[in-house]
Design brief:
heterodimer; A: alpha+beta; Sulfite Oxidase, Chain A, domain 2; 2 domains; 26% helix; B: 198 residues; alpha+beta; 5 strands
Amino acid sequence: MTDPPEDRAHLERLIARRQFIREAASGTLIAALGGGLYALSDQLTREAQAAERKDGRPRLPPGQRVLSALRPMGGAEGDPRKSQFRLRVHGEVEQPFELDFRQLLALPQTTQTCDVHCVTSWSVLDATFSGVQVRTLAERAKVKPTARHVVFEAAHGYTSNVRLAEALAPNVLVTHSLGGEALERTHGGPVRALVPDLYFWKSAKWLTGVRFVAKDEPGYWETRGYHNHADPWKEERYA
Amino acid sequence: MQILGKKNATPERSVNVRAWLRALHRDAGYLAVGLTVVYALSGLAVNHIKDWDPNFTQVKRTHQLHGPFPADERAAAAKALAELEVATPPEDVYRVSDSEIEIVTGQVTFHLNPESGVVNEEGQQPRFLLRTANWLHLNRGKKAWSYIADGYAVFLLFLASSGLFMIRGRRGLFGRGAVLAMLGAALPILYVVLSGGP
């Protein structure tokens, strides 16, 4: 006895569908396993997770993975010409001043190797930056006792806010070089802020000013849902 | 010649809602193709921004040129650019220090060390299609694009809701359709519940 042609066609369609579902599920499983293997093979991240900083905190903040170099993160690029660079130090200070690039280079320079952590979950270890400590600028400007925060001002109105005590830490710089070379324009050159112990958006690229303020002023990302403080070890990513 | 009686005329006057839905769904789908491609490609690109730069390709090269270079920075820059076969005239030449002359040409900057002849070239070139798609997706153009994006969102809502009612029977909303729709809705709900939410 043979099946009618309609039943046979229906059965063939059913089998074909089942086969498709089986193959799609297999493909998904293989892709997932591949992703798992990729994650397991991330040697740099595993080593950093096992290491500890001098202050006792884990070297790699939670939720981060290690990249070998800074990733350009976009943003509205500022003027890349060093000849046009001006840095205004002002606000709650007794002696506001402005520097051009050569004058910035004439100030005491600091070279430091540190880790940086982007809120998009990548970190770069042992990046060597050179520049001027913000505390040097603060001393020269004679910051008033009323100042509580620092606002880094950058091209196209971008700002980021940092608590005064954290901005005056010795590892917080106004930096112009990375890895011994001029800071690339995609990374904020000619000059950017560097606040290594906060998420990297606080380290404003294409820096134009350092303003000391008495009252906190949440910056560009801080007013768009990102955390006001941005401590990577507390995963202060979002407000 | 057939004379239509009352009994035969009734089906012609009735409105077949599902047929209308299918037709509207189809046409809305055609209209949404262009924007869906823009938003999907850009979404994939921007989602993985930590892995790559979706807007630009990065340029970073080191060159070793033959000195000596003239003491005048403009002359030194001209000699360096000539040796690098860069035809674009520099926008800016600036002596940063004895060991660096900065030469800016459009999207690229050259850092010339006139003492050693080493030139570090750095900059970026825009990815034409993706940069444009991202520009649209992220609404960097503002103004009129907001209305287009709003219209597209309404289209998507219509496509989603009309799709629910296009087919009747066990493959429609009272069969396979319900199961798949619930699965689709469960994804964001489960994600929020399991991740702890905002």
